[in-house]
Every structure is written in structure tokens, then in C-alpha cells.
Amino acid sequence: MRFDRLDLNLLVALDALLSERSVSLAADRICLSQSATSSALGRLRDYFADELLVQKGRQMVLTARAEGLVEPVRAVLEQIRSTIAVPPPFDPATCDRTIRLMASDYVTEVLLTTAFTDLHQLAPNMRFEIQPLTEALTETLERGFVDMLITIDYAISADHPSQILFEDDYVVVGWNGNPAMAGPMTKELYFDLGHVTARFGRGRVSAFEDWFVRRQKRARRIEIIAPSFMSLPGLVIGSNRIATLHRRLASKMAEYLPLTIREAPLEIPSIREMIQWHISSNNDPAIRWIVERLGTAARAPVGPIADARIVSLDEIRQKDASHQALSAQFQSDTAAAGRNAS
User: Fold this and answer.
1) How far apart are CA 9 and CA 237, in angstroms?
2) Is pLDDT of 309 > 70?
3) Which are the contacts of 31, defined by CB distance < 8 A and separation ≥ 6?
4) Mean pLDDT throughout 286-301?
5) Is the pTM of this model over 0.85?
């Protein structure tokens, strides 16, 4: 490659000759033969119209023109080396980027909510945008609308790198006040009860577990179709309906909702959630760092599911009434304190 008639490959040879002040030593440094290095020196002399290296006694010395080239040539090569040959080190503490991810509400709740808290501690200047899953996952990734996507293993593309984050299975969730949740969930009871399920997109794609339930050659009684996984628990509370939900999500939501969790009476294979990024980002240190941190967060142990006791609807209403009374008292006390202060 030439720049203003100069073969840029000769810059490496020139730097070695100026530093070593010897054809043989320069040849060893740049792994060329002595004749090839001598030829390079001849071409450099022709380009600069200067001898560059001249014999003085038993040594070679630099001409005035060559002395003036030492620092500029070294600076040019160092600039190339620092910007092209050696990527700058990645420091999450100073990284200022917006990373766009595509993930379901389920993955957002069971993984990203906690992972982003940890990421903020390590990379306070990074920003994240979560987009909902679409029906064109690979196209969205390839067109650069997102930096990475997290989805079930069968939905990823073989054309881009990916990594398994975690596996999850399914459980049955119901309201604590549902008498059917007092004992184990049997197959007969499962099909006798009304169900809440999630379907997505314009095509109303069924949730992953639907396919396996249909293989039982027995239809469930679907009473409510919801647009998201997160809405399922709320739609069984106060009713005798049940929902088939990911274990991780069910466990997390049972921490603050009146839910009882039972093992699914059907053989439903586990799912595998994977993270995928564009092949052009494979050497992007920020992307690889996020993948590593999300993988670490995904491997964190999931706590055991507590077998919640049955809670009646009347008890829930009493708790709500008590909470409202306390809230009203707090507001009244606050208002009185404000009047006294004035």
C-alpha cells in the first residue's frame, strides 16, 4: 500500500534501521533477510533522496535527515499500534454506552432486575434499554436495532454467537384461597380447573408450555388469555383458576403475592434461556463483559419455594382494610403536625 509514493510497509523497516543503525540488526528485529532489509534501505534512500545511514569507521551513523525522522516515524507506528493493533483496555467504571437488549418480561423479572443493580455498581455510566421480544428476533439483531437478545434456545440464530444463561422448568400456581391448591396438583385436577395463559404478538403465539399440554390429547379450559407472563399470577388471585408458570418467576412472585405453588403433574421439558449477540460484536469488550456478568447473575442459586399456607379472601380484605386505616391515620397525623408547625 502506498501513500504519496511511499510504500507504507517500509515504515517498519525504517523504524528498525533508525533504531538499530545496522542493516543486520534491523533484519533480525523485523524478521527479514539481510538482503531484503538492505533492499528496503535502498528504496528508502531513493524516496527521501538521502543516504539515511552512512558508514563512519566501523559503525553506521544517521544523517541529519534520518535524525529528524526518528521520533515522527516512531510516533506514527505507535499511533497505528495503539488504535489498530492493540485495542484499548475496557474499563466498566468509565464506560459510557447505551446497550439495547431484547428480552421477555419473564427474563426481565427473574434475571435483569437484579443483574442491572449489580452492573450499576460496576459500570455507573452505562445505560440499558430493554425492548420486548418481536416475531423477527434475528432480523432485529442483524439490522442493529438491539445489541443482544435473550430468548429461548430454539429461537436463536446459528449465524451469531450465543451462550446459555440458565435452565428453568414449570410449576402450577394458584391463589392461596383456592381450595384446589390445598394438596398436590394431580393430572385430573389440572385439567378440571380453569386456566390463565399467555400468548404473544399479532399471531397470538402460545406460551412454550402449551405445545406440551396439547400432546396430552386433552384440552385445558382456558378462561383468560393474557399478553405477558407477569400478568398471570395476578389473574389467578381471588379465583379458582391456575396458571402454568416458570419456576423462577413463580418463586419470585410468591414472595409478595398470596400464591401457592405446586409441582406440575405433566412431563414438561425444561427451557433454556440463551443470550445472543451479533457476530460483528464478538470482540467488543463491553458486550463480552455484559455477557459474562449476566452469566454470573444467571448462575446464582435460586432459593427454595416456600409452601405458602391457605389465605382466605376475607383475611386478605381484612389486611387491606387495616393497611388503609393505618395509611389514613398516617396522613391525618402528618396533616396535624403540619398545622402545628405553622
Assistant:
1) 73
2) no
3) none
4) 93
5) no
The three three-digit cell numbers of residue 245, written as one number: 408458570
Q: Which residues contact 236 (CB under 8 A, 6 or more apart)?
A: 173, 174, 175, 178, 196, 242, 243, 259
Of 145, 106, 51, the closest CA to residue 229 belongs to 106
String of DSSP letters for 249-269: HHHHHTTTS-EEEEE-SS--P
**Domains in the chain: ranges and CATH:** 2-85 (1.10.10.10), 98-166+273-298 (3.40.190.10), 170-269 (3.40.190.10)
From CA 310, how far away is CA 249, in angstroms rounded?
20
Longest dimension (CA), the chain: 107
Span between the terminal Cα atoms of the chain, in Å: 82
Instruction: Give the model's confidence band at 5: pLDDT under 50 very low, under 70 low, under 90 confident, else very high.
Output: low
Model confidence pLDDT, tens digit, residues 123-145 = 999 999 999 988 888 899 988 89
12 burial type by CB count under 10 A (0-12 exposed, 13-18 middle, 19+ buried): middle
b/e code 63-72 from CB counts within 10 Å (16+ = b): eeebeebeee
Which single residue is written with the C-alpha cell 495503539? Answer: 82
CB 141 within 8 A of CB 157: yes
- Spatial contact of 100 and 38, defined as CB atoms under 8 Å apart: no
Model confidence pLDDT, tens digit, residues 160-172: 999 999 999 999 9
For residue 155, what is the DSSP state? G
